[in-house]
C-alpha cells in the first residue's frame, strides 16, 4: 500500500495547528512569571544569619589569637636572642677564667727565662727562644707549647736504619720549623745506629730493649706528653703509649726531684756542649742547648749545672740528650747554636717541630 508523503505532512499539520495556536495565545496573553528573590523560608534566613555572625565572631577571635601568638613568638624570639647572647658571654667569660691559671703559670715560668727574642705562633704550636747565660756557660732555651700533639715528631736519618743526617737537613727535608738532635748512637760498618730502644711512629724500630747501665728512654706520648725514664719491661713503656722516642743518659729530673747523676757522667766529660729536654706541669716543653768549644771537658756546661738550671726553672721531668758535636738547635731555617765541630754533625735521630 502506497501512501503519499506530502499527504501525511499535511495531515500532521492540520492535527497540530490548534495546539500551536493555543500555545501562542498563552504566551501572548499571560504575563511573564516572576520568581521570588529567595525561596528560603524566613526561619532559615534567620538561622543562616546567626551562623554567619557566629563565624564572623570566630574569625575575629582567630585573628586576635593569631596576633597574640605572633606577638608571643616575637617576644620569645627576642628573649631567645638575649638569652643566647648572655650564654655566649658566660661561656666566653668561663673560658677566659679557665685559662687564667694557665696564663698566670706561663707568665711565672717565662719570667724566669727572661724576654723571648724570637717567637713562632700558629694554631698548632707556639715556640719562644731565649738566651741562657748564667756566666759559666752560654746557651739557648726553646720553650714549646704543643697545641696539637702531631706538631712534634721524631725523624730517622735519611728515613732508614743506619742512616744519619744533620738536624738542618732533617728540618728542611720534613718541612719543620725547628729541630734539635735527639738520642745517642753507635757506629758500625760505616753506618750510624740509634742506641737501644727507639720508637718511631708508634712502633719499635728494632724491638724493645730493657734499660741497662745508665741508659734511659725519652719521647712523647700519643697525647703529647713528655715521657721517659728506665723501663725494664715493654709493658711498662707500652702503658705510656709512646708515639716516638730515643735513648741516651742520664735522667736529670723526675716529678720535680733531682735524680742522682752517675759519677761517670759527671766527669766524662766534665763540661761539654749539651742538649737537654724537659717538661713543665702544664706539659709545655723546654729544651736547652749549650755551646762549647769541643768535647774535651773544658767548655760548655756540666750535667749538674743543667740539672740545677732546669730545677730552678720549675721543670718537672728532664732528660739529657746526645751532646758534644751532636748538639744542635735549628729555628726558622738557621742554626741557632755554634756546633763544637764547626759544622753540624750527622746523627740518626732528631726531634722536629711543625708550624
TrEMBL record:
Give the Pfam families listed for this entry.
NAGPA
For this UniProt record, the keywords arranged alphabetically read as follows: Glycosidase, Hydrolase, Membrane, Transmembrane, Transmembrane helix
The answer to whether UniProt assigns keyword Transmembrane to this entry is yes
| Phosphodiester glycosidase domain sequence ranges | 174-353
Q: Which GO terms describe its molecular function?
A: hydrolase activity, acting on glycosyl bonds
What residue intervals traverse the membrane? Answer: 12-33
Protein origin, superkingdom: Bacteria
**PANTHER family registered for this protein in UniProt:** N-ACETYLGLUCOSAMINE-1-PHOSPHODIESTER ALPHA-N-ACETYLGLUCOSAMINIDASE
Task: Tell me what this protein is called.
Answer: Phosphodiester glycosidase family protein
Say which species the protein is native to: Paenibacillus farraposensis
Amino acid at each position: 500500500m502506497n501512501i503519499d508523503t506530502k499527504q501525511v505532512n499535511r495531515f500532521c499539520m492540520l492535527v497540530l495547528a490548534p495546539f500551536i495556536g493555543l500555545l501562542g495565545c498563552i504566551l501572548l496573553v499571560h504575563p511573564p512569571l516572576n520568581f521570588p528573590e529567595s525561596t528560603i523560608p524566613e526561619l532559615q534566613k534567620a538561622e543562616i544569619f546567626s551562623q554567619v555572625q557566629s563565624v564572623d565572631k570566630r574569625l575575629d577571635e582567630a585573628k586576635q589569637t593569631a596576633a597574640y601568638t605572633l606577638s608571643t613568638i616575637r617576644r620569645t624570639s627576642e628573649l631567645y636572642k638575649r638569652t643566647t647572647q648572655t650564654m655566649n658571654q658566660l661561656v666566653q667569660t668561663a673560658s677566659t677564667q679557665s685559662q687564667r691559671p694557665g696564663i698566670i703559670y706561663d707568665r711565672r715560668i717565662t719570667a724566669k727565662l727572661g724576654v723571648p727574642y724570637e717567637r713562632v705562633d700558629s694554631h698548632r704550636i707556639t715556640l719562644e727562644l731565649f738566651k741562657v747565660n748564667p756566666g759559666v756557660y752560654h746557651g739557648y732555651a726553646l720553650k714549646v707549647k704543643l697545641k696539637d700533639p702531631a706538631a712534634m715528631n721524631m725523624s730517622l736519618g735519611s728515613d732508614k736504619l743506619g742512616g744519619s743526617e744533620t738536624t738542618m737537613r732533617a728540618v728542611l727535608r720534613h718541612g719543620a720549623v725547628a729541630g734539635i738532635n735527639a738520642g745517642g748512637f753507635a757506629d758500625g760498618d760505616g753506618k750510624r745506629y740509634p742506641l737501644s730502644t727507639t720508637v718511631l711512629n708508634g712502633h719499635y724500630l728494632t724491638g724493645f730493649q730493657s734499660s741497662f747501665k745508665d741508659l734511659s728512654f725519652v719521647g712523647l706520648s700519643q697525647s703529647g706528653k713528655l715521657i721517659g725514664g728506665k723501663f725494664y719491661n715493654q709493658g711498662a713503656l707500652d702503658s705510656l703509649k709512646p708515639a716516638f722516642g730515643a735513648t741516651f743518659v742520664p735522667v736529670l729530673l723526675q716529678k720535680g726531684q733531682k735524680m742522682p747523676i752517675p759519677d761517670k757522667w759527671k766527669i766524662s766529660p766534665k763540661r761539654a756542649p749539651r742538649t737537654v729536654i724537659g717538661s713543665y706541669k702544664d706539659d709545655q716543653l723546654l729544651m736547652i742547648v749549650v755551646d762549647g768549644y769541643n768535647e774535651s771537658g773544658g767548655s760548655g756546661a756540666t750535667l749538674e749545672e743543667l740539672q740545677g738550671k732546669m730545677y730552678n726553672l720549675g721543670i718537672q721531668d728532664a732528660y739529657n740528650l746526645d751532646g758534644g758535636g751532636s748538639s744542635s738547635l735549628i729555628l726558622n731555617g738557621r742554626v741557632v747554636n755554634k756546633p763544637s765541630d764547626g759544622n753540624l754533625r750527622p746523627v740518626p735521630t732528631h726531634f722536629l717541630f711543625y708550624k
